[in-house]
Write a structure and sequence with these properties.
Number of helices: 13
Radius of gyration: 25 Å
Strand content: 25-35%
Strand order of the largest sheet: 13-16-15-14-17-18
CATH architecture of the largest domain: 3-Layer(bba) Sandwich
CATH topology of the largest domain: FAD/NAD(P)-binding domain
CATH superfamily of the largest domain: FAD/NAD(P)-binding domain
Distance between the termini: 27 Å
Structural class: alpha+beta
Largest sheet: 6 strands, antiparallel, barrel
Number of domains: 2
Amino acid sequence: MKKIIVIGGGAAGMLAALAAAQKGAHVTLLEQNEKLGKKVFITGKGRCNVTNAADIETILANIVTNNKFLYSAIYSFDNQGIMDLLEQNGCPLKVERGDRVFPVSDHSSDVIRALQNLLRKNDVDIRLGSCVKELVIEDSTAKGVLLKNRERLLADAVIVCTGGLSYPSCGSTGDGLKFAEKTGHKIIECKPALVPFEIKETWCKDLMGLALKNVSVRILRDNKQFYDGFGEMLFTHFGVSGPLILSASSYYAKQKKGGEFKLLIDLKPALSEEQLDARLIREFEENKGKQFKNAVNGLFPARLIPIMISMSGISPEKKVNEISKQERNNFVKRIKEVPLTIIGTRDFDEAIITQGGISVKDINPSTMESKVVSCLYFAGEILDLDALTGGFNLQIAWSTGHLAGESSAADEPIERKETENGYEL
């Protein structure tokens, strides 16, 4: 019977341990926290966005970094795989807007409980409060781990699922990245991703808590656009957040440092400039004789009105029937492009995920085994893989964890043909 050690009891680690045990291996799961799934517990605001029910091609399209590397992992254990696994083990699921999948109970604890029960059924030795000091490597082969209490555990294979750097309060200390670097793996610079933006303009603070739905944003670096999206955003005391902004941050993180970053908000994306101008004319006709500041109540949320009036360049006291066509056209353009200056993002403690990690060039995509050290596997957020919001990042963890677990426990190496792009399927 093969002995497998899994380091990290998050989403990837639990699936790796389960998959290896179901293949007949004796599995020891080491978790430094007092319980499993600490980060899983807080995902989806405590509801746990398990995965996304879209087709596989859509899932891959929502993976921002190295999606082709995931072909083997996703196709061998896809979204239906994790959904069936949970539902067959006492955690019924539901599909919500955007194909997001949640437990029917809206409690992430039910997801963790189902996986814990499965681990116990499959005789996985779960050791909580167990901190790994270093990997035991001999002749470029993983032989086990050395714990911080100096206990030495030997195994036929080691799977590292320690996560990235996001939410350090959940135990994401970056130890796994240090293990990888020490054993010769290349580490792609880690950055916060799916994280709010910090904004230069101070008026954002005046709108703290205001959510804008059905808006679009564009982001430019030195006047060159690299992102556009549609959805919901939120003003905060430091800048902007919300699903639309979090997704934008993953593309922002890939940009080189330096230059000026502008975020342009289109408050009325469903209307062209001509259509918006026609609506403004109607609003002004209906409010003929009123001052400008009292004639735009139907266009914006109440708290946003004084900001838009201030940015319009039109005197608040000016009668609407006195506003020139040029002034009205300028106001239309401002509504379609509310400018904000991005000065950075919040730190890892507010980031949902980490962008960067172990270079996938050092990992066999058909097994998750290291190409640098034999019998050493990596899965989950520790790898240079990341996706947009909507359950896609957890699917990366489930799929890579499951593949690493199965591969590590296999009696014979898994063989798959190479595709034209060099990735094995």
